Amino acid sequence: MKSLVRVFLSIFIISFGLMGVAAWLNSSQGYSGGNTLTVYNWGDYIDPDLLARFQKETGITVIYQTFDSNEAMLTKIEQGGTSFDVAVPSEYALAKMKQEHLLLPLDHSKLPNLKHVDDHFLNLSFDPKNQYSVPYFWGTVGIVFNPELTKGIDFHSWDGLWNPKLRNNLLLVDGAREVVGMSLNSLHYSLNDTNEAHLQRALAKLEKLAPNVKAVVGDEIKMLLANEEAAAGVVWSGDASEIMDENDKLDYIVPDEGSNLWFDNMVIPKTATHVDAAHKFINFMMQPDVAAQNAEFVGYSTPNEDGKKLLPEDISGDERFYPPSEITDKLEVYDNLGKRMLAHYNELFLQFKMHLK
């Protein structure tokens, strides 16, 4: 019995010692206590120099992780395995997170830089009074096209994508809301439509698009379009900006029937363990010079009014990415359609992708 006790005591001492060593290592690397911040953001969605600057100015070590879809982000936060301190959901995902009580309310007294954000991007329907979020980037969904390879095709209408001249020459971003939504818009329906007859018409029209679709892809769509692997593609406006930086022969347009006006937003998940550091990070990202630097690096439109004034004129004055009200008034924000309807959109999108094979 004494031997057994000694064995258990030895195991306990060794385990305790290992825990102490691990804690010391984490502390020495800045991964414990109040000097750590875990940020969960989209890929390629921040200037790394800004993370270094934030760490230098605050002494807070940033652990930066990325996701590639709102659904992946939601799943990981719902599971609760990692305590993310800041996340960046799109507006419909944010609404879902509010509904499921996954967010902490923001303390506006710790966010003095909120005054720099354009009032047009505050107090929106998905988060009245910005109780849980502040805008990070905004933009549209539209068409990148190569004028030399698409002569005779009019992309002022979504119907241009169905032109037989585009056979096997069109790329689509891998997003159910985006692809089903643009088909709905082409039929003059809302991209938040839940009418089953309308959704089936949208699917039928997408299936007619299949001969033109070369691939449905993720982030690689930027490289493929820049390298002229396809003549046109349906993309987010920020990706379009990056693509056009790589290949100035390309252009971007939002069709006249309307499209998506989207917002990505900084929030604090309910499981956050460094709430004060999270507020510091959000406030830092709203500094005008920081917002301008981030917008110039990433290529997406900043909601920061004072930051926009610091951008070069060729960026801030580009109406393709900072469109006038006569265009934005025709755009729609994605509604949170509920778990069942979102699943149905995903099913329709999957049926379409299966039709491509």
UniProtKB/TrEMBL annotation:
GO terms for biological process: polyamine transport. Spermidine binds at residue 92. Keywords: Membrane, Periplasm, Signal, Transmembrane, Transmembrane helix, Transport. GO terms for molecular function: polyamine binding. GO terms for cellular component: periplasmic space. Coiled coil: none annotated. It comes from Paenibacillus terrae. It is found in: Periplasm. InterPro entries: SBP, Sperm_putr-bd. It comes from the Bacteria. Pfam families: SBP_bac_8. Its main location: periplasm. The keyword Transit peptide does not apply. The keyword Transmembrane applies. This is Spermidine/putrescine ABC transporter substrate-binding protein. The chain crosses the membrane at residues 7-25.
